[in-house]
Structure formats: structure tokens, C-alpha cells
Sequence to fold (214 residues):
Amino acid sequence: MLPDPSAIRSIVFDLDGTLYACPQIAAEIERAAVALVAATRGVDFASGRDLLNRARRRLSEMREEDATLSQTCLALGIELPDFHRALQEGVHPERYLEYDGVLVALLDSLSEHCALYVYTNNNLALTHKILALLGIQPLFSRIYTIEFTGRPKPDKEAFFQVLDDIGGAPESFLFVGDREAVDLRVAAAQGCPTLLVRETADLLQIHKHLGLIP
Fold:
């Protein structure tokens, strides 16, 4: 994963499924998207779900990889600002998330050695709320949300904007995410080290590769 761990200066984390995992929040995001599709098409909720699922399947087949919700909404003619307004109204992370002392400790120890960043398809308001609930917001040097580029991951142009804004050679970055195709593939193609995680405990792999723990 890390050909030269000593070169790492910046760690860029995805948010959902990486710094936290919550099926209830994922379900609320899906419901908000379905409700928006139904409203824009003038159909009931069940029909909206069917439209969204069929569009996502078609897009996944065309791309030969799972389509994200943002990509699917764009394919249905829904603008990203409208999608994210629906998320702000329909997603309530305060119902499910709370301070995570283990996560705080893991990230705090990393922040002593590297600058930490978040790069997510979420909007800024929802991202700030989630990070604040977990207790980790102050640990990040900068948060890159959909407002920064207006282009959802995976997107090479958006990726380079984030990379240029942080600064540094590709090998000085470590990208961490739970979806290889969405969070990591573009970074890996540009020579950035990557780490695929499935749960918070996987973040200990960063400490091991950086030589912070045996």
C-alpha cells in the first residue's frame, strides 16, 4: 500500500462508510433521493424508487461499475444543489451519531504526523454536522465537499483540484475510503497510495504503515 511511508504528508479521508458507518443515515439519504425523484416526476414514492433504481442500474451497466447516488440524480436531470437541499431537509445524523472517543484518539494521533483532510460527495452543512457529532471536526486542516468543485467523485478534474489545493507530490498523499471505484481508483491511477477500509478499526492500518505502532 505504501511504497514509502515516510513520504506521506497528507491523509485524505472519505466520510460516509469511512469515518463512520450508519445504515440509518444511508437509508435516510436514499429516502431523500427517492422523494426528490418522485416530486420532480410527479409520481408517488414507490414509483420514484423504481425510477431511481432503474436509472442507477442503467448507469452502472454503462459505466461497468456501481453508479453513485449523485451520478444517478444527475442522469435523471436533477441538479446537485437540488439534491443536496433534499438531503439537508431529509437527513438527520443527530438521531444516530454521537461522540466517538476511539475515532478521536485515532485521528488525533495521526494529526501529529500528517495533515488530515476530508473529501466527500456530501454537502458542507451535512458534513460539518456529522464531523461535529463525532467530535473530530477540529482535527481536519480542510474539508472538501461537493461545493468545492461541483463535480461528484469519482472525477479526475475534481481530484486534481483537491490535490492542487492541498499541494504536494502524489506520493505524499494517502487516500482512505470504503469504495475502491469511487474513493480510491482515480488517486491510485495518479500514483497516490490508497487504503480501502470497511470499519473504523481498519484505520489502525494507517498507524501500522506509518510506523506509529508495531
